[in-house]
Amino acid sequence: MRDDGHSENYVRQVSTEINWLRRDGWRYDSYESACRARESQTESGEMRRRYRLMYGILRRFDEDGVFPDFRPKEPLFKRGAYHKLDPRLGSVVDAFVVDGKARGLKGKTIKGYASAASLFLLAMQERGRESLGDVTEEDVLSFFAGPSGGPAYSSGFEKEVASALTSDLGPMSDDGRRVAAYVPRIRPRRNNIQYLQPEEVAAIRNVLEDGESGLSLRDRAIGALLLYTGIRPCDIVGLTMADISWDRDEISIVQVKTGSPLVLPMSAAVGNALFDYLAEGRPSSDDPHVFLGLARPHDPISACAVWHVASRMYDEAGVRTGAGRRGTHLFRHNVATAMVGAGTPRPVASAVLGHDDPSSLDHYLSADIAHLRGCALDAGRFPVREGVFDV
Length: 391
Prior knowledge:
single chain, 17 helices, 3 domains, hpI Integrase, Chain A, mainly alpha, globular, 391 residues, 51% helix, 3% strand
């Protein structure tokens, strides 16, 4: 591991667990049980996570001959409810996945529905139900009811569970539809739309242009794409060298979410940030993706990395440092409201954002404060008790 460039600290952590296994490993029949024993010796969540990482490395090397190669690996204990399900209930999720693929559902949709169904079924299993046929109406209603009597889950979660249960589950289909009929219909919650204030946009723009800020060249390139194009993180992650046309000042992609092509104009701010990163900040690699990880072997970044870039932008700009939304979608809201506020026709704004359906823009228009103020009625025309509007 030292010869391959792993840090001394990383080598020491692995060596510590090898020595512990040499001394006490005879007490345990698997790497999983040894790992749980080590986890029981600490109250630190970080140490428990480290043990799971170390014992996953050791098991893969011992059983499969896989040597650590800097790439993230599947944890020793898989997360999620599905892996805790007994085979009979787990087969319900398996049947849904097969049906979802046959119906052409997107992988992300299948994963989300399967996760929701697994959580529901695990709760049924913990109530002593061994199959869908054992689940009663009381079981279902108890699961969805919160401590105060209101719904414990969102309307979206309810729909995911019901959709999974009403899929073609083979011999379990009748029981699935019966259980789905017990699922209560939950009213969707309407959340206030978060949007960036003009002064927040100005502060973020300043840190992107400031070469002395704490943002790396990669951060600035990703930040410019977020701020000036509203492109989705999944499309930033998938961006390749071939997608950038320096001659035409365009970025051409096929959107991950919709599967539709999208051509974006590349402004000077975006083009300069991309060029600086590619020329001076990008690790040397034959990988066609534009944005690569900083650590070897410099694989393409994940959408989670884009979220962390956005978080650093907020911190450097000194905005949204307290409570409040800080995600990447705020930039998409900002591009939409800026275009509409400047008089851009709705079909054009919708096309720039990559919407298949122009009505998708309606969600963003609710944050167009400037035009919404013009729709407000003058309260002076109505009889209002004196002092109501006093500050």
